[in-house]
Amino acid sequence: MEITGKNFIGNTPSAKGANNFQVSNPQTGALLPTSFSLVTEDEIKELAAKAATAFKIYHKKSAAEKAVFLETIAAEIDALGDTVIQRAMQETGLPEARLQGERGRTTGQLKMFAKLLREGSWADARIDTAIPDRQPLPKPDLRSILVALGPVMVFGASNFPFAYSAAGGDTASALAAGCPVVVKAHPLHAGTDALVAQAIINAAQKTGMPDGVFSLVFSDEAMAIRLVTDPVIKAIGFTGSRKGGMAIFNAAVNRTEPIPVYAEMSAINPVILLPGTMAANAAGIAQGFSASVSLGVGQFCTNPGLMFMVNDAAAQEFLAVLNDKIKDIPAATMLSKGICAAYNDGVAKLKSSATVAAHSTATVHAEKTEATPYIFTVTQKDFISNKNLSNEVFGPASVIVLCSNVEEILEALQHAEGQLTATVHANAQDEKYMDDIVDLMKEKAGRILFGGFPTGVEVCDSIVHGGPFPATTDSRTTSVGTGAILRFVRPVAYQNFPQHLLPDELKDSNPLNTLRIVNGVHTRDAIA
Amino acid sequence: MEITGKNFIGNTPSAKGANNFQVSNPQTGALLPTSFSLVTEDEIKELAAKAATAFKIYHKKSAAEKAVFLETIAAEIDALGDTVIQRAMQETGLPEARLQGERGRTTGQLKMFAKLLREGSWADARIDTAIPDRQPLPKPDLRSILVALGPVMVFGASNFPFAYSAAGGDTASALAAGCPVVVKAHPLHAGTDALVAQAIINAAQKTGMPDGVFSLVFSDEAMAIRLVTDPVIKAIGFTGSRKGGMAIFNAAVNRTEPIPVYAEMSAINPVILLPGTMAANAAGIAQGFSASVSLGVGQFCTNPGLMFMVNDAAAQEFLAVLNDKIKDIPAATMLSKGICAAYNDGVAKLKSSATVAAHSTATVHAEKTEATPYIFTVTQKDFISNKNLSNEVFGPASVIVLCSNVEEILEALQHAEGQLTATVHANAQDEKYMDDIVDLMKEKAGRILFGGFPTGVEVCDSIVHGGPFPATTDSRTTSVGTGAILRFVRPVAYQNFPQHLLPDELKDSNPLNTLRIVNGVHTRDAIA
C-alpha cells in the first residue's frame, strides 16, 4: 500500500490545500518520503457533511454489522504487514517489537469491542412496563437504551502511533458506539496514520459502511480547532499535552452547543513507598522502579514521575541501588526533536530546584534525538512550596520526595493534582496507614495499584484509564477498556411505543438476549 | 417546626450577613413571615470546609447506612405534615393536592434510591482476575467500581418546591452516590426549602451522618457563582432558565479544575400530529392537548410548547375544538410576579409574529398573578426563518406550526434545538413516515413518546429526563429516575489489591450479592 499524503475526506483522497509537511526520522534527522497536504476549509466542510450523512445510516446498523466492521478493520491493519511497522519505526524511533506489540493491542481492542457489541448488554436496556389501572394516574410503558451521540473527532497521540491514533481506543470505542469518526493525524507519524486510515476505509467499503463513517485529516492547530467547533462534531477524544488538551476543551465548551471533551493530558503517577516494605525490600523496589521509569524512554502517560518515601536507612539503600541501576541505562531515541528538547528543558528546570539522585552515564547523541533518565530528590517542604516540581516532564525523569514520616507523605500527596494512577508499596508493618492512604489515592487517581508500577495498561472490562483533572478533563470515564464506549452515548427513553418501532434491545421478546433491567430486576428473560 | 431564616452551614444555623429577603405570596402579593439571611463569604468558607470533611466520612458509609439515611429523610419530610404544605401553597400559589402529590413523589424518590443502594448492582463492579503465567507479560488482577465525585451543589427550581428542590432528585441522587450536598434555596420558596432542610439535618443527626453532609444557603447570584467556583465543589445540579444555567456552566468550565454541570434549562417539547391519526381523531387529540398545555398553568419543563401538523381539514377541526376547550380554561395564579410578567412578555412577542389560534376568555386578575393559555399558529416558513418562535415561553403557551405536508414537518423539526421530549401521534396510515420521524425525534430529545403528551415524568429505572443542548448541558445523563445516580460518580480501578483493602462489592466472596462482570461474564457468583 502506498502513502499518498492526501487527506481522507470519507472515502475520497483529497489534497486541495497549498501547504504540506513531511515527517522526519528522529534517529537520523532525515525527512521521510511523502508530503502531507494540510486540510482546507472546503475539505472540512465536505467531511462534516459526509459525517452527518454517515451518522444517519451508521448508527442504525445492527450490532452484528458494526462488529463485522470492527473485525474487518483489525484484519486490514494486520494485512498492512511489515510496511506499516517499518514506517512507524522510521517516524517514531520506537523499536520493532514494541510497535508489533502495540499493533496487536490495537487490533485486539477492535475485536474486544466487536465482542462487546455481539453480547449487547453494554447498552443498558431498561424496561418498566405499563400499569394502565394505577391510581391516581396510569403508569406508561417506558423503555430506555444508550444511543450514539453523533460524529466524534479524535486527536492521535504522539507516543502511541497505533493504540491511541487512527484506529486506537478512541476510534474503536466511538465506532462501536455508533458514531462516525474524524481523526486528526498526529504530525509525527502521519505516514503510519495514513496507512491505518486506508485500512479503515478498505474495511468500511468491504462491509458496506457509509462514506463518511471515517475520515482522517492532516491539520494545523487552527484548522483542528475549526473542526472542534463544527456543529456536526458531538464529542472529542484527545491524548496529549495539557496545553493542547485545554485549548480543545475551551473551544468545545464555548461552542453554541457545548460538547463533551475526553482529553487525557497530564499525569505524574505518584508511587508511595511505605517504611515497612522499604525496610524489607528497598533494593528490589529500586530495581523495579528503574525499569519502569526508563521503559520506552519514559514516554508513557503512566510513567512514574513522582515517588514518596520516608528518608530512612532503607531510603538510602534504595537511592544507592537506583543510582547503580540507572547509571548503566543506555541513551535512547525519543519520539521527536521537539519532545526531546522539552524533556531536556524539563530536566534542566528540575536541576535548578532539586538534587540529582541518579542519572545515566551513557553518552547521549543529540543528533540521534537521544535522552537518558534523570532521577531527583526533594524535601517534602520544597515539594509542597514549589508547584513546578509537580509538572509532568514527559520522558524518563522522576522526582523522589523525601519525607520525615508517613504523615508527611499523606500531606504531600494531598497537594498533588489529579492523576491517572497512584501506587502504594506496603507490607504488614504498614497496615496502620493503609486506610488513609487508599482513601487519598482513590480521591486523586483513576487507577490505584498495590505494589508494582503503573506502566502497562491492561485492556479489559475493569481497567480505568482516566482520572481527576488534570489527568483528564472528564474523570467520569475511561479511555481504555470496554467502558470507553460509554463516552460516546446518551440514554433515550421510549414511552408507549409499539413493539415494531422499538430497537431490538427493547422489544418484549429480547431477540438479542441481552441483560436488561425489567421492572427492577436484572434478567435476560423475554417479557411474556 | 419553625422557619428561622438562617442558613444551614451543615448542622449549624447561621445568619452572619446584613442582607435579608422575604418571600411574597403570589396570590395576594403579601410578604410572608420570616426574613431569610443571605449567605456571606465567611459562611461559604465554613460550609465548604464542612463539606470536604464530611465527604471523607460520608463516602465510606456502607450502602445500607446511606439507605437508612435516605429513608429517614423521607420520614422526616413526612413528619413536617401540613406545615410545609401550607407554606409551599403560600409561597408558590400551587394547589394543595398538587403539592401533596409532589411531596409523595419526593419521598418516593428518596426511598427508590435507598432500594437501589441496598440492591447494589448500580455500582457497576467489574473484575478481571490475574493470569500470572500469561505471555509475554503476566496479567494483573484488576477490579473497578463507581465511587463518589465529592461535594455537589444543587440549585433548587422555582416550579417544583419539593421534587426539584432541597430534597429533590438532584439531592437524593447525589447523597445516594456518596456525595455531600450544598443546596442553594430557591428564593421563591425559601421557607419550604428551610423546612425541608431542617428535616434533612434531623435525619443526618439521627442516623449518625457527619456534620456537613448537607447544607442549605440563601444566596444572591454572585455568591452562588462564588460557591460554584469553590474547589471543594465537584459537580453541579441545576433546574431553571437557560440564562441561569449557562452562567453556572460557564463559571464551572472555566474553573482551574473544570467540573460537570447538569443544568436542565430549556425545552419546548415538540409534538408531531401526523395526518392519518389527525383524520381519525383530531377532536380527541385537541382535547388532550388543551389539558396538557394548561396543566399547572403550563409551569412544567415538559409543557408541550410546539406542535407540528399538516394544514388540512383535520387541522381545522383540531383548531376549532382547541379553541372551544381553551376558551373556558380559568385564569390561574403563576409562581411569582416575575414569572407571570415573563410569560406575558413572551405571549406579547408571539402575538407580534404569530396568529392567535385559541385563548381563554376568562378574566385575568393581575393582582393575583394570574395568567391564561395562549395558542398560536405559524406557517412552516415563518417558523424556520424566525428563531424567536422556538424560544421557551414558560407558562401555558404553545405554537402550532402548520405545514403543507409531512416532509415540511420533518424539515421544520430538523431546525428545532435539543429537547427534553418529542412526541408523535400516528396511526397505521402514517406508518411510512415513522422511520424518519423516530430517528429525528431520537436525535433531538431524551424521551420520545408515541401518543399522549409529555407532561408527567414517571420516576423509574427507564425514565430519561434530559436531552441534547439546550434542554440540558449534558445529554449523557438523566436527572430523574435511578440513572440519575450515575451523574455523581466516576470509576476507579484497583490493581493487585489484597482482599481486605477492597470495597465489599469487589471482594471475591461478593458479600453484598451484587451483579458484577467477572472475567467477561455477568454474574452474582462469588469467585472461587
Describe what you observe in this structure.
The structure is a homodimer of 528-residue chains. Chain A has 528 residues and is α/β, with parallel strands linked by helices. Chain A folds into two domains: 38-265 and 478-486, Aldehyde Dehydrogenase, Chain A, domain 1; 270-450, Aldehyde Dehydrogenase, Chain A, domain 2 (3-Layer(aba) Sandwich). Chain A has helices at residues 41-58, 63-79, 81-92, 96-119, 169-177, 190-206, 221-228, 242-253, 275-294, 313-326, 337-353, 380-385, 406-414, 431-444; strands at residues 7-9, 12-14, 20-21, 36-37, 126-128, 142-148, 152-155, 181-184, 214-217, 235-239, 261-264, 270-273, 306-310, 332-333, 355-359, 370-371, 374-379, 397-403, 419-425, 445-450, 489-495, 516-518, 521-523. A seven-stranded mixed sheet of chain A has the order 15-17-18-13-12-19-20, sandwiched between helices. Chain A is globular, with a radius of gyration of 25 Å. Chains A and B meet through β5, β6, α14, β20 and β21 of A and β5, β6, α14, β20 and β21 of B.
Oligomer description: homodimer
Provide the β-strand percentage band of chain A. 15-25%
CATH superfamily of the largest domain in chain A: Aldehyde Dehydrogenase, Chain A, domain 1
The CATH architecture of the largest domain in chain A is 3-Layer(aba) Sandwich
What name is given to the CATH topology of the largest domain in chain A? Aldehyde Dehydrogenase, Chain A, domain 1
Q: What structural class do the secondary elements of chain A suggest?
A: alpha/beta
Q: How many β-strand runs of chain A?
A: 23
CATH top level class name of the largest domain in chain A: Alpha Beta
Form type of chain A: globular
Task: Provide the gyration radius of chain A in Å.
Answer: 25 Å
Uncertain regions of chain A: pLDDT < 50 for 5+ in a row? none
Tally of separate helices of chain A: 14
Average pLDDT of chain A works out at: 97
| Overall helicity of chain A | 25-40%
Number of discrete domains of chain A: 2
Strand line-up in the sheet with most strands of chain A: 15-17-18-13-12-19-20
Termini separation of chain A comes to 54 Å
Largest interface: A-B, 69 and 69 residues
Largest sheet report of chain A: 7 strands, mixed
